[in-house]
Structures are given as C-alpha cells and as structure tokens.
Amino acid sequence: MQKLQNNFLITDGKNIMKEYNVIVIGAGNAGCEAALAPARLGLKTLLITQNIDLIANMPCNPAIGGIAKGQIVREIDALGGEMGWITDMAGIQFKMLNKSRGPAVWSPRAQCDKKLYSTFMQNSVISQKNLDLLQATVIKLIIKNGKVTGVVTNLDETIRAQAVIITTGTFLNGKIFIGKTVFNGGRFSETSSTDLSESLKQDCGLEISRFTTCTPPRINGNTVDYTKMVEQPGDNPPIPFSHFTNIKLWQQTKKQVSCHLVYSNETTHKIIKENIKESSLYNGLANAHGPRYCPSIEDKIVRFPERTRHQLFLEPESLSTNEIYINGLFTGLGENVQERLLHSIEGLENVKIIRYGYAIEYDYIQPTQIKHTLETKNIENLYLAGQINGTTGYEEAAGQGIIAGINAALKIFQKQPLILNRQEAYIGILIDDLVTKGVDEPYRMFTSRAENRLSIRTDNADLRLLELAHQIGLISDAMYKKFTLYRQTLVDLYEEKNIEIPTDEELVPWTREKIKEELEITKKYEGYIHIQQQTAKKIAKYGNKQIPKDFDYNSVSTLSSETKEKLIKVQPLTLGQANRIPGIKPSDIVFLNIAIERYKKIEKILI
After folding, report:
1. 582 confidence band (pLDDT: 50, 70, 90)
2. 3-state SS of 186-246?
3. What is the pTM of this model?
4. Residue 10's pLDDT band (boundaries 50, 70, 90)?
5. CA–CA separation, 279 vs 297, rounded Å?
6. What's the pLDDT score for residue 539?
7. Which residues are within 8 A (CB) of 399 and not within 5 positions of it... i.e. 6 or more apart?
8. How far is CA 111 from each of CA 68, 430, 433, rounded to the nearest angstrom?
9. Sign of the C-alpha dihedral, residues 29, 33, 34, 35?
10. Strand-pair category, 131-135 with 181-184
11. Beta carbons of 426 and 450 less than 8 angstroms apart
C-alpha cells in the first residue's frame, strides 16, 4: 500500500484496488443506518447491495414502530439516525399505541408508503458525502491474522477496508416456500446469497443456524368491500417520530389514510385445517424455528382451536398503488388455498391477489458470538447487524445498524466504543439480550423486556441520548444548541425557577407544548422512578463488577460443567451480564464473585 487517492489505492502503478475505511454489505434498514453513521463522521464508506433500486425495500409490512419498536426508532433518531425522519416523510397513517395506559408504554406506529420510504432512504444514501454505492454481491470475506481486511465480489473485484459490517437480512442461503413450491431467494424475486454464508462459516469460524418467517398475501384494494369492515383512522393530530421534524408545520401538511379491521371465521379455519399439509410450515419443507409472537395463520388455527375468529388488518402499502397488506394472515399455504381462504372472509369475497404470501428460511449467526459493540469475537473489525443476529423487524435491525456503524467508526478513530446499557435505552436491552442470552427464535423487542421502562420512554429519547450523539459527532452544533435550550428550560421549570419561557420559534423543532408534556410526565413518574433508580443502583453495584478478561472459569470447582460451558461461550464482561445468561443460577454468581476476588488477591501478590 502506498497511498489513498479518492478511495482508490495505487498499488504498483498499474493495478488499481479500491480501499475504504468501512464496507457495509446489504442496504436494508440496518445497512443504511450502518453506512450513514461512519460516512457522516468523515470516513470513506462503501455500501454494497445486490440491487440499488431496492434500497430500504419493505418486503414485509410497510409500517414503522409499534409496541417497544417505536421507542427504538425514537432512540435511533436521537442518535442521529435516519429512520424516524424518513418515516415522518413517508408515513400515511400515524397512531400512538397504548394511549389507554401510562406514558411509559406509549409507542408510536406509522403506516408508510413503501415506495416513498425507499425513495427517501435511497436519496439520503446517494446524497451523503463520503458514502459510495456499489451494486454487487459479496462472495467472500478476506481474513488475515484474525482480522477482516476486505471483501471479494461476484465481479471478481477485491475491495479493502479497515472494517466490514454485514447486514444481509434474510438473504443468507434464503429459500422461499409457497405451499409445496420451493425456490432460492433472499426476498421474492431477489436472489439469495450462498457464498457469503459459507465464508462466514469457513473463513470466520462462526456458528450458523436457520430461522423461518412468513409474509401475507397482498391484494388489490379496488376489489375489497370496505363497507363490511371496521375503519381504523389515524390519530388527529398525528405525532411525528423524529425529534427534528417541525411538528406544527408537519401536522398542517400531513394527510392520512385509514386501515380496516376484518376477521377470519369458521369457514376460513375449516379451509386451513383441511389443507394444512399444503402449507410448507406443516409438510416438512420449512423446518426452521419461526417467530412465536407473530405466528402464521396456520399456527393460529392449530394452536388455538377454540378460537372462532382472528383479527386481520388491511393496511395500504402506497398512495400510488391499490396494493393492500393483510396484517395477521402470514402463511406458507399454496396459491389455491390462499385464494379460497381469502374469499371466505367478509368483504373479501371477490378480492384479487396481487402477490401470494410465502414463507422464507434463512441463515443467521448465533449472537452470543458477538460483543456489545456488535463486533464478532472471532474476527476483529467484523461487525454484524440486523436479522443476521437472529432478530426480526425493521426497527431492531436499524437500531443495531447505527450502533455497528458508530462503533466501527470509533474503533478506526481509536476511541472508546458506544455501549448503551439497559438503564438508558431499549437498543441497549436489545443488544445485551442478544449477546448474553442468544436466541432460539427470532427476537422481537417488547416493553416487558425493559426493567426501567418508566424512565426510558418514547417521550424522552432525546434527553437520554442526544448528548451522546453530539459528542460522537452525529448531531450538529446548531441542532445541539436548540436542544440545550429546550433541556435547560425543562430543568428550570422543574425546579420552579421564575424564567421567561422561550418561544416556539426559538425552540423549533422542540415546542412549548412539548415542554409542558414532558414536565407533566416527569412529575407523574418521579416517585416511581426514584424507587426504580434506587433498586437499579443496588443491582448495578453488584452487577457492574468486571470479570477479568483472562479469567479461567474452569478453575472454579464449585461451578457445574454446564455453567462453565455457558460462561466460556458468552464471555460476559460483568457479573450482571453473567447473571442474565439463561440457566445461570444466583448461587453460580456468588461462587463466581468469590473466585474473582480470590483471583484479584493472587494477582496483587504476584505484582
């Protein structure tokens, strides 16, 4: 290597080899966030995708947010990510879920125009300084001395990099099932990636497993009888996702469409039961584990035989088409059975299918093989984010993507990594769960996973994380100045100081109304949060105790072989993390604490 000129490395005066600081493989929501972060921090970044026209494509429901997922999107936005702002621009219906309950579990959700969403994200990526796009397929990782140093594409092109982030979604060895029909694909009509999966196994020594998931059929909205259904309008006024959206101006211009609620019935269920062996999920073709919380319609009928109906939501996919997504009708049944069961539902008697639902099986990497930074334990400078880590959902993927992108950049800059803890962010919970517990089914975030959900709410994601984002360099000084005015005003009013409240013009994109709302929520929860914080401190005092990097678990005779095996596999950083490993008992932590203290005393003597 001699010198870097406009991302191209001149090697010997004749051969030219591309070189970047960061390469990101895959341009879904995880990949886009992972690529934008280092590029915005000034690093030369390359985003490689099999089809540039399908950047941030939404192959499943074109919706963002939902229970706990909305909190993740707000956190991504506070960290300087893109998902929240694009959702505001592409959203066609906005609802705040759980409004009948307390603010701690309020969760924003938006139905999006999937064409607009993809277009906006594509524009963000293409226009981003320091970020290049390449349409190609990565077939191999270049590994030297335990470090990733680049990739090889199907164009027989070698591209060097200081860090590589893999965000391949369902494309690794993806296989699609429609009834008894089976073919390879990462998504419908898109080729899967087989060589990269093999490279991860052979070149990186990573353990690979399989998951499956389903999509529902899409139908022609012009053939639906909406008069037989229950209309589901959006909230008025709508609430945006992004902290940086001008709320008042946005609410004046935002137009919304309705979704509709309908139900399956006994005839529908009879058709499914009689044809259950036609489903790839029940005929032995698709054998991998699927998501328990988002089951196929076949699973619902089999697991809940006493139910005479199930909810189905008809959700528009775009303002420019009449395509409707049937949320709740995920299936691996064949085409003819899908037609029959749809025609048995009230309001869908004459419906026409545009796209059949299908099941997809794909490779993922057991996430206990990665660190909290999302760097793999086996290979240095190789990061994984999104469904490759066993998660599901655009939001969980994007949350991992931005953390992987930030940490790859921070490592290149030789700075301390960003590791969000469970007390400050849902993203921290997500990553800690993956790294510590691993997965045996596709992981989805829920508010019940958050021990501190009273204090890590959707309304205060900016107060929790925007300071960190500014320190890293992902929030501009101008925006940070606005934020500090908002934050200081909140503090002064909370302390009942006699101050002149800034105008909306001075606060924009924050508002006086937002200050009022935040004060009300804070005061409502302050007593409960105090109790929660005291409890957290007691746990943290014990749980944050560091485990020495070279600690020998096999030397602790009081630990069972099974416990030692789990600790060696996960390599927890702290006793708190060790305590969260499935199957680890409180007594194991006691024995481990004693052993660590003994180890430290011996180390002092030796020194």
Report:
1. confident
2. CECCECCECHHHHHHHHCCCCCEEEEEEEECCEEEHHHCCHHHCEEECCCCCCCCCCCCCC
3. 0.89
4. very low
5. 10
6. 57
7. 72, 75, 76, 426, 427, 430
8. 16, 23, 28
9. positive
10. unpaired
11. yes
